[in-house]
Amino acid sequence: MTEYSINGKSSNEPRVDQLVDIKEYEGWDTLTLEIEVTIPEGLLGKVFPEFGKIPGMLVVTAHCRETYLRERFVLARDPISSGTYEGTWEFDAKDVRGSVNLRPILIRTTDTSQSMNYATNAGVFVADGPEWRLDISDTSGKDQDLLDVRTKSFEEVHEADDDTRFPPSDRLYYLDLEGDPDLPVLWLNEDHEKVTTVMQDAESEHEKQVSDLVWNQVMTPVWTRLVTIAATEYDPDEDDWTPEWQGAVFDELHDELYPDHTPEKTAERLQEDLSESVVLATKKVEDAVQELLEPADYYTKHIQNLTER
Q1: Contact 59, 29 (CB under 8 A)
Q2: How far is the C-alpha of 74 from the C-alpha of 8, rounded, in Å?
Q3: Which of 45, 208, 212, 223 could be stapled to 289 by a disulfide with Cβ–Cβ 3.0 to 4.6 Å?
Q4: What is the rounded CA–CA span in Å between residue 67 and residue 157?
Q5: Residues 12 and 101 in one domain
Q6: What is this structure's pTM?
Q7: Is residue 194 part of a domain?
């Protein structure tokens, strides 16, 4: 990342290598990054057996753990060659929080059977570069905590304790709101190793898109349950959110639920709607979660990737 600008104003250069720190800026709407990636001489010959028109794609991936954002920015594709590529990537404030990791990746775009000494399948990445971090806001404080993601074998838990609150070993995940009421924990079941590995350590571009779909499927009911519980337990007479994660839920979703409402007013309004009509209120919650997670976009990208392959 060579330069960055906030709300389209004057550009700044990163002060530290591999880090862009914009935590000092508050209330911004758009962040523009100037990106530069160099494919050094000799690299392509090491990872592609082809000569001349090399069937590759150079992308920069972005992953924000706080918002579950996974996006990619294509700098060049089919054919590619050694040299420096530049591009401009714009982020919206509502899509990123905490920190974002960006990494340049070189991907094969067509299958080949020329040599077993090379990656042969379209969609796999064949080289990557140094990872950069974009620090947006400080989420280290407890009041910013929303969801802790951990892994555990559900089968081992049941072998050790017949009365455990964990679900059976055929389940993929468990949203634990009982162990620590102040901090929800999303447990991923290690018994499904192939799935959880892709969710947490996806490598190829195809795996990353599969990971996006799995996370989206998991987070849809998780968000629905969190916001419903938070609304039901909300006490408008209290000055502070108790527990604090419930306030974080409405900080994230209040615009999608009731535009122009504060998080507190949104919680109160949803609580009233739930008492009047559970059917209509849960429909509103489901619509808001879909607007937040945008599942159709992720499935469209996955389908397009399968079509390209």
Answers
A1: no
A2: 22
A3: 223
A4: 30
A5: yes
A6: 0.57
A7: yes
